[in-house]
Amino acid sequence: MELQRILARDTRTAMEKVFSLYGEDAMVVANNKIKGQTEIIVAIDLVSQVKAAFSAEPAQAAEVSEEASFGSLLDAQLFDPSTSDVVEEKASDELTFGSLFEASAEQQAPPVDPLIDVPLSAVSNAWNGENYQEAAEREQLKAREIVDLVKQELSVMRNEFRIAQQKDSWTGTLAVAEEMRPLIEAFNETGMPLGLRGLIIDIINQSSSMIEALAGISTAISNGVEHIDLIDGMQGIHIIAGSSGAGKTLMAGRLAKQMAQAYEEDEVALVSFSDARIGAWTQTQLIGAQSGVEAFRAMSLDILTQLMAELSTRKLIIIDTSGVDVDAQIAALVGAFPQAQKHLVLAADASEASAKRHLTPNGIKWDSVMLSRLETQIHPWAVINALLNNSVPLSIAAEQPTISDNAIALNGISLAEKALSQLPIHFV
């Protein structure tokens, strides 16, 4: 199971793209409005597409329809956005020289059993010389986690619908002053979780003006969200964890760069732990080079233990983890390095289910939460709701998608101001 993102000018056009690219078997997981466009997230089964690709005749594989070009099919089968925490690539529907090369190279690839039930990315790992069985197992584990996340998303949606049936309508029967209507409508457009809406409604009903309401909401968030100062004097071992695609590697590199400027470059080390994704180690090396710090790779806990002994004189060691089986990884790392601090990276626009997935108490006590993608036109209300319901402090955030921009300190006040500044308020 894979998650794919479709952008279009409206819902109808987006759904046409979904059916054209992935067929009627694609399951719609989310439907959002982003910068005036419609975003649809679909869950698709790529296994059948992989089997078809390997079983098809070369002449048949080269046939492309106008509705689903060869470039778009390659994008759906080969490009996994979770394989890169550094660079966001955009799909192209045009037939390029690179895609033609990929098509011609299929005949030269090692023979693969078309009945093996693994994603194409695992096959690519095997072609690159990695252990096929290990790659297949990792990809299958990742697929199961994606399916679990989809189930959680659906569970949250059902729960929200059930709660909504028992409450007054957010925009209907709620009695508010006319001057407060734009604020109500703005919050309604953000997709705010119902649990947080109840708090917001109470504050609005107790306020005499919009300015007073916004100030009250900001105070409630800032009082309910804890924070710690992390960047100043950051030393020791720090583990950066989170789901695939959350921005862990970029956050780790950004911190390494910042602290290398505070200390000497040889006092900081960046370690990639147990990440077998395609190109993951290359990305870590590139980030290390951009940061000016040494990068190391440890594919097992034993190797990491030996490496940490060699790096014990460094002031700061940042461990970047993979996005697969996060809980088990953190448990193993904490057992080996109990003095290490553990930080969870969440995308600022993460869904409620995604935010709850790791923040909900499950044996891991995070030292802080780091937010990535805290950019313009982002509504972090699901993350805010999760932080209000869990005693995990905020530490830093990334407002730009490049390593050249430093991470900034983040607390409840600044997060509330950021969220409120992005409200689509339509004044009359």
Structural description of this entry:
- This protein is 46% helix and 15% strand.
- It contains 17 helices and 11 strands.
- The strands form 2 sheets. It has an 8-stranded mixed beta sheet with strand order 6-5-7-4-8-9-10-11, sandwiched between helices. The chain has a 3-stranded antiparallel beta sheet with strand order 1-3-2, with helices on both faces.
- Helix 6 (120-127) packs antiparallel against helix 7.
Count of domains: 3
Helix-strand makeup class: alpha/beta
- The CATH class of the largest domain is Alpha Beta
Order of helices and strands: EHEEHHHHHHHHHEHEHEHEHEHEHEEH
Shape: globular
Cα-based radius of gyration, to the nearest Å: 23 Å
Largest sheet, in brief, is: 8 strands, mixed
Query: How many helices?
Result: 17
Number of strands: 11
Widest beta sheet: strand line-up = 6-5-7-4-8-9-10-11
Low-confidence stretches: 50-130, 165-173
What is the terminal separation in angstroms? 46 Å
CATH superfamily of the largest domain: P-loop containing nucleotide triphosphate hydrolases
Fraction of residues in helices? 40-55%
Please state the second-level CATH architecture of the largest domain.
Answer: 3-Layer(aba) Sandwich
